[in-house]
Specification:
The chain is an alpha+beta fold. The protein contains four helices and eight strands, in the order H-E-E-H-H-H-E-E-E-E-E-E.
Length: 196
């Protein structure tokens, strides 16, 4: 089986396979022929990674071309449209890793209390886009009226890259104050297009 994978992927010994956001091979860099002890080879590899990670949005609609092609087979997705009528527009579906054509594709937000010694902390894990292009803002409120994004209130506890072909990562935000000290706390995550 292992031999079949090497043949199918046309891998040579010490190949670095650079993948795009859909886990497709974008480029191959061989470390035997390109010694990383040589500065110019390190720079070439760095530029290959940066090029593979670059967001291409040729129609300037704030939806990456590869995402639009994946879900609509053309560059026709408008960020404000909601083709599956589930209440989430295309930009929101893109930002939080859901399928814009499937009303059953739901957000991965799963707030939970996590014990930390004698205290319980509210954590909010969710799926989000990996890489740039979107700014995620976590905010906290005790009354749904006044929101704050202070780092003394909430923090990004972890971001775990997922290699599942979706171009998403698993982010977890956590309140800094225990639930016992603030029994009514609400968290919202806003996704805004990054200024380019």
């Amino acid at each position: 089986m292992e031999q079949t994978v090497w043949v199918n992927w046309e891998v040579e010994y010490r190949d670095v396979q650079i993948l795009d956001s859909q886990n497709r091979v974008y480029a191959v860099f061989n470390l035997t022929r390109n010694d990383l002890a040589i500065e110019s080879n390190r720079e070439i590899l760095k530029q290959m990674f940066l090029a593979a990670a670059k967001i291409v949005d040729s129609d300037k609609d704030r939806l990456p071309d590869d995402w639009e092609l994946r879900y609509f087979n053309k560059l026709s997705g408008n960020p404000a449209d909601d083709p599956d009528s589930d209440g989430a527009d295309n930009f929101t579906e893109f930002a939080f890793g859901t399928n814009p054509n499937d009303a059953k594709s739901r957000s991965s937000f799963q707030p939970r209390l996590v014990r930390n010694g004698q205290q319980s902390l509210l954590t909010v894990p969710f799926r989000r886009r990996a890489g740039g292009g979107i700014n995620y803002i976590a905010e906290v409120s005790a009354d749904f009226k006044n929101w704050t994004r202070s780092s003394t209130e909430i923090t990004a506890a972890s971001i775990k890259l997922l290699f599942d072909g979706t171009g998403t990562s698993q982010a977890t935000y956590s309140l800094k104050k225990p639930a016992e000290a603030q029994p009514y706390s609400f968290v919202r995550i806003r996704a805004l297009p990054a200024v380019q």
